[in-house]
Amino acid sequence: MKRFLPALLLAAVSTALAAPRVGTHDGYTRLVFDLPRPTTASAKVTGQSVAVKLGLSLPAAQGPLSAPGVTAYAVAGSSVTVSLARGHASARVEVLPARPGQVARLVIDVPTGAPTAQRPAAPPAGAAKPAAVTRTTGTAKAARPRVVLDAGHGGNDPGMQSRWVQEEAVTLDVALRVRAELQKHGVDVVMTRDSDRHLSADKATDLDQRSKLATNKDTSAYVSIHVNASTNPAAHGIETYYFGQPLGGMSRSVAVTENGGGSIGQELTRRAANSAQSLLGDLLAQAKIAFSRQLAQKVQSQLIQATGALNRGVLTDAFYVIRNPTTPAILIEIGFGSNPAEGARLAQAAYRDRVAGAIARAILDFLNTK
């Protein structure tokens, strides 16, 4: 029976990939459906729904949507239907071509200004212009995509240490640089820590509190940043993980280390591995895991392009901090601090800036934010 699990997982993910990524922006909500190839699309708005006809078929899927202006979606073969919230009756639809590192996409933008049913009628000709009204700042906020950045370790847990770097300091520096870049593009950023501190002296509680920030329905992505280490000083390169069982033949040494090391790391890895096994039959969880894989692929590609480091690939493992699948979540090992060359590079602010820039570009691409 065990040998059939990979096929079951692939089938579940294939179906889940028909689910859209959802982003809330100033004035509109954006739905993005990944396509296997470029195609034609025609759209029609009827009543409270947008019906799109594609020149190809997608796996069947349907589900509720909680973003402004939309309530649900359904995919059936070549038809994609989005149900609009009451008072919304327009949408813009386009197919974006594939480009390096990104597949073709169906994009549906639904305006989220004042719903049509609630817009006041135009004043009669010649009516006096109303006096200007001054509103205090902060009375209304436009919805913005939100990203959680987790700077690995900190406080009583310094992470890996070498003659070149200390993990907790490098991860915090890179996370702060990523935050600054994302904020320039209007992304709301939540940090699990913004100084040298832990969330709890107990490692299990610390990781649990970090992971809970990924369960907020308003969070678009969760990115945990770490520095790798090995007893082999020749080990080097960058790898990006999303949650799941490790690939066949791979050890769990990285997950155990990042989950706290020793007996604590072993126990938390065991718990996370059990969660990974239980998610195989949950299609909603598989949809989020599929999006996590897409985010991981984008981040890994940008990092290798920006740094020229060895590409150790996109992998899966049972990291406790990204075990909850309600939000696309990844863990990045940005290099080996134990390697003489890579550790020395990670100690340089200019190199960390390149790493942070690559992570930010990948996140913005994933969010479809310019």
Automatic annotation (TrEMBL):
One of its GO terms (molecular function) is N-acetylmuramoyl-L-alanine amidase activity. Keywords: Hydrolase, Signal. Its EC number is 3.5.1.28. Gene3D superfamilies: Zn-dependent exopeptidases. InterPro entries: MurNAc-LAA_cat (IPR002508), N-acetylmuramoyl_amidase_3 (IPR050695). Residues 115-132 have a biased composition (Low complexity). Residues 211-364 form the MurNAc-LAA domain. CDD domains: MurNAc-LAA (cd02696). One of its GO terms (biological process) is peptidoglycan catabolic process. It comes from the Bacteria. One of its GO terms (cellular component) is outer membrane-bounded periplasmic space. Residues 1-18 form the signal peptide. Transmembrane segments: none annotated. The keyword Signal applies. Residues 115-141 are annotated as: Disordered. This is N-acetylmuramoyl-L-alanine amidase. The lineage of its organism: Bacteria, Thermotogati, Deinococcota, Deinococci, Deinococcales.
